[in-house]
Automatic annotation (TrEMBL), chain A:
Protein name: pre-crRNA processing endonuclease
Signal peptide bounds: none
Pfam families: Cas_Cas5d
Protein's job: CRISPR (clustered regularly interspaced short palindromic repeat) is an adaptive immune system that provides protection against mobile genetic elements (viruses, transposable elements and conjugative plasmids). CRISPR clusters contain spacers, sequences complementary to antecedent mobile elements, and target invading nucleic acids. CRISPR clusters are transcribed and processed into CRISPR RNA (crRNA).
Organism: Deinococcus carri
Enzyme class: hydrolase
UniProtKB/TrEMBL annotation, chain B:
Name of this chain's protein: Type I-C CRISPR-associated protein Cas8c/Csd1
Region annotation (Disordered) ranges: 53-75, 596-623
InterPro entries, per database record: CRISPR-assoc_prot_Csd1-typ
Organism: Deinococcus carri
NCBIfam families, A to Z: cas_Csd1
Biased composition (Basic and acidic residues): 596-607
Length: 244, 623
């Protein structure tokens, strides 16, 4: 099991049902944790599978207003700007939106690397590479917690990390006695399926390298629960169902 | 748990308990409302014979004499309609039902009427109900102009935007189970049997895989400051909201039925003043997992009325109420009013603000009923404070009064964050923001009434809610004057009140000492204390010569304060110290006015006993 500690001043793991006016999940989602790991180290030869997310600090919610833009920057629009010499002016295309985010967060991510069928090298190689990179603070891009503006810091854990008692904080005495707090259904990850006429294009990796395919992505959810004070355990079987 | 599933659970529980839904704030009929039905006002009833010929038209009046008569409410098919042409089944406005144009030469009138006709035809074929077939037959041979001439001559007030329904030989087809099932089936989108190109996904509320909604079927009504036609929870109308090519409400896949349930659950809560609170731009809903909902909203909005004086009476009698007792009293009051309260049941609260046509969730709290009520008890206990005027003794303040004490004109301010902070403090004990103190201090300096009671109460609440490591303060006794308070800022506040009292007992100044020096004294006392004390010597001298009794009293009071002030802080006071300064000033003023009241009472008692009035030593001005 590989471990990584991440922390940040703010985080927003947006719930899909409150996406326009954002509301964060109380705990980091498995897909957000995967994103953090992939920003530090990823190769097509392996897949990250998040096993546990340990919440190290109490949940503090914080309400902010931010300016966000309404349109997506498309490739076609960018070509237009390149030709005309213009550009995108966020000032003319923004909306003020509310977000209920988390403040002062820290997590310990426990995850496994799982080799893809087309991998030729042993897993040990990739594990060592990840550990060296994490130790040195190297990342392909700075990891972030949910939203790009909430950049995160990371380091290998020093062994003193203890889960904060979130079960009690959020669930009160009753949840503490039961030793378990149900968080309801939480986004697990997106499931990609190749299709003739898909809604999006994505990269597929295999023995012949990488290629673009058309397909659909549908969100998958799971029943999230906190146990042992503040540990979110991700059922392994979910990764069998979702091929990322 | 997610907010939407909590709301859905509540709605399902209410339906199970046989509680009537309350769409549009009207009283519902008996029993459960069929799927996608809502109470709607229907003005006209077209009575048909079994062969589809018209017997007559009957008006259905709401009994209202003022304004436009929209008709009597009736459970009828409902849907959200914006610009597109979407007919309701067997009941709609006269434009859809009878083809009467709302606007002259509107090309779409015919299209709307045709859509209505087609839906009824489809329903007649699917259900094979004689009554529906009769309506279909009527529509087949319907001519708007002839119909108007033959049947509407007696009704000059017939308007195309009022709703029309049908009965066939006394049968209302909307009550037929088959018709209701047909209507419900219209919304089962994307199922294989309907052949639609629907989107199938895993519902984020129920976890079932199946067709999910495109648009929310029911809008949320009753959000303060929001659109009156209703608001959405889940929607994506701009590219930036969409992800992975998923549009509209598919960004968060939810089964159609589940969406109808959570929306109706929230509408039910918002329509009832006992389970909602609309204040300062924020709309709250409160509900429980089990049993009755404690009257949290009304208590925060109108504490004096809801708590019916019982609570205030106790506070007044004991002057200083222990929080524990206040909590128990409040719990007793709540259980007395609502015997169905379950202490261990889950308690939920959500605070929402409008943002365009969408709802923004500001707060989402989960605790237990007992915990929430006990926290509310702490909130009211934190409000206990001595009063300058006798009538304010033991008074509790509503949210709006507390928030408005921080502003010159509350109507010009964006108060949602303040209201929210207070509600969160009241229900969970989350500390109040330090920015409250900054605003209060600014108001205290600028406002001619200085530290009013609501300001003092709010100051006290903020001081109690947090840990002030830099402030040497005895938290247990902020209710009334406490000469043993260690922090010098507190006694500086007292000093200002005492000096002002001395001045006012000698002369009636147009601009009093407080008017001139409150600002500088509360921020940089070092700069002014010397001058103020020196200035008061002349007043004391005059008092000593003219009213020796009063002089002794005032001199004692001044000495009392001065002995507590070993040294004057050389630095400007911090925000927290300024708050304590304000409280010290307020406490001392309350103490002075209480002395005056006691003196007056003693004088009157004396006058009554020996009938020989004489000059009283404790004469002074009430400020």
């Amino acid at each position: 099991m590989l471990e990584l500690k991440v922390w940040s001043d703010y985080a927003c793991f947006t719930r899909p049902e409150n996406k326009a006016e954002r509301v964060s999940y109380d705990v980091m989602t498995p897909s957000a944790a995967r994103g953090v790991l992939e920003s530090i180290f990823w190769k097509p030869e392996f897949q990250w599978q998040v096993r546990e997310i340990v919440v190290l600090k109490e949940v503090k919610r914080y309400s902010i207003l931010r300016n966000e833009v309404n349109t997506l920057a498309s490739e076609r629009a960018a070509r237009g700007w390149a030709a005309s010499g213009g550009g995108f002016f966020a000032e003319e295309d923004r909306a003020q939106r509310h977000a209920l985010v988390l403040k002062d967060v820290a997590y310990l991510i426990r995850a496994e690397m799982v080799l893809q069928p087309h991998a030729k090298d042993p897993l040990q190689k990739y594990r060592e590479m990840f550990l060296r990179r994490a130790e040195k603070g190297q990342a392909f891009h700075q990891p972030y917690l949910g939203n790009r503006e909430f950049g995160a810091f990371f380091s290998p854990p020093d062994g003193t990390e203890q889960p904060a008692n979130i079960v009690r904080q959020l669930g009160g005495e009753y949840a503490e006695r039961a030793g378990r707090l149900d968080l309801g259904r939480m986004l697990f990850d997106m499931e990609f399926q190749q299709a003739q006429k898909g809604r999006l294009k994505y990269r597929q990796h295999g023995t012949e390298g990488a290629w673009w395919v058309e397909g659909n992505a549908t969100p998958r959810f799971f029943d999230a629960a906190l146990t042992d004070g503040g540990i979110l355990r991700v059922p392994v079987h979910l990764y069998g169902e979702v091929k990322g | 748990m997610s907010l939407l599933s909590q709301l859905r659970d509540y709605e399902l529980r209410m339906r199970q308990e046989g509680k009537k839904p309350v769409p549009a704030g009207e009283q519902a009929g008996e029993g459960e409302m069929p799927f996608m039905y809502a109470l709607q006002n229907v003005r006209w009833e077209v009575r048909l014979n079994a062969d589809g010929t018209v017997r007559d038209v009957q008006p259905r009046t709401s009994g209202k004499t003022k304004g436009k008569d929209l008709g009597k409410p009736l459970p009828a098919p409902n849907l959200v309609r914006t610009v597109g042409i979407k007919p309701r089944l067997l009941m709609d406005n006269a434009e859809y039902v009878l083809g009467f144009a709302k606007k002259e030469n509107d090309k779409n009138t015919a299209k709307r009427h045709d859509a209505f006709k087609a839906l009824v035809q489809a329903c007649a074929e699917a259900t094979r109900q004689p009554s529906v077939q009769a309506v279909a037959r009527f529509l087949g041979s319907h001519d708007p102009e002839r119909f108007q001439a033959e049947h509407l001559a007696d009704f000059p007030d017939f308007a195309p935007d009022t709703n029309v329904m049908f009965t066939v030989d006394g049968v209302n087809p909307l009550e037929l189970r088959e018709v209701q099932q047909f209507w419900a089936a219209q919304f089962a989108q994307g199922g294989e049997d309907s052949g639609g190109e629907g989107f199938r996904a895993e519902c984020l509320i129920t976890g079932e895989v199946g067709p999910v909604m495109d648009r929310e079927p029911v809008k949320i009504k009753g959000i303060q400051g929001g659109q009156t036609s209703g608001m959405n929870f889940i929607s994506a109308n701009a590219q930036a909201f969409e992800s992975y090519g998923l549009e509209a409400s598919r960004i968060a896949p939810v089964k159609f039925e589940a969406a109808e349930q959570y929306a109706n659950g929230l509408n039910r809560l918002l329509a009832d003043p006992d389970t909602s609170l609309k204040i300062g731009g924020v709309t709250y809903a409160f509900w429980t997992g089990e049993g009755a909902v404690p009257l949290v909203g009304p208590a925060l909005k109108e504490p004096e009325q809801v708590l019916k004086g019982r609570f205030t009476f106790q506070v007044k009698r004991e002057k200083k109420q222990r929080p524990e007792e206040v909590r128990q009293t409040l719990w007793g009051i709540f259980t007395g009013q609502q015997p169905g309260l379950k202490p261990g049941a889950a308690f939920f609260a959500v605070g929402m603000t409008p943002s365009g046509s969408r709802i923004a969730v500001r707060t989402h709290l989960t605790s237990t009923v007992q915990d929430a009520v006990f926290r509310l008890g702490n909130y009211f206990a934190a409000q206990t404070l001595v009063a300058v005027n006798e009538k304010d003794e033991g008074r509790l303040y509503d949210l709006r009064t507390l928030v408005s004490s921080m502003y010159r004109d509350i109507n010009k301010e964006h108060t949602a964050p303040d209201v929210d902070a207070l509600v969160q403090f009241a229900l969970t004990g989350r500390p109040l923001p330090q920015s409250f103190l900054v605003r209060l201090a600014a108001r205290n300096r600028a406002d001619e009434y200085r530290v009013t009671r609501p300001r003092a109460v709010l100051t006290k609440m903020v001081l109690l809610s947090r840990d002030w490591k830099e402030l040497d303060m005895d938290k247990d006794s902020l209710d009334a004057l406490n000469p043993n308070q260690p922090e010098p800022a507190y006694h500086l506040g007292r000093l200002l009140a005492v000096l002002d009292d001395i001045q006012s007992s000698v002369m009636r100044a147009n601009t009093t000492l407080v008017d001139r020096f409150y600002g500088s004294m509360s921020t940089t006392p070092y700069a002014v204390v010397g001058r103020l004390i020196q200035g008061s010597q002349a007043h004391l001298q005059k008092l000593r010569k003219e009213k020796p009794g009063v002089y002794r009293l005032k001199q004692d009071e001044l000495e009392n304060v001065m002995t507590r002030l070993h040294d004057i802080p050389a630095k400007p006071l911090t925000t927290a110290q300024q708050a304590l300064f304000a409280l010290g000033y307020y406490h001392q003023r309350a103490h002075v006015s209480e002395g005056i009241r006691e003196g007056k009472a003693a004088r009157e008692a004396k006058a009554a006993s020996d009938q020989t009035p004489d000059t009283d030593p404790s004469e002074g001005e009430d400020q």
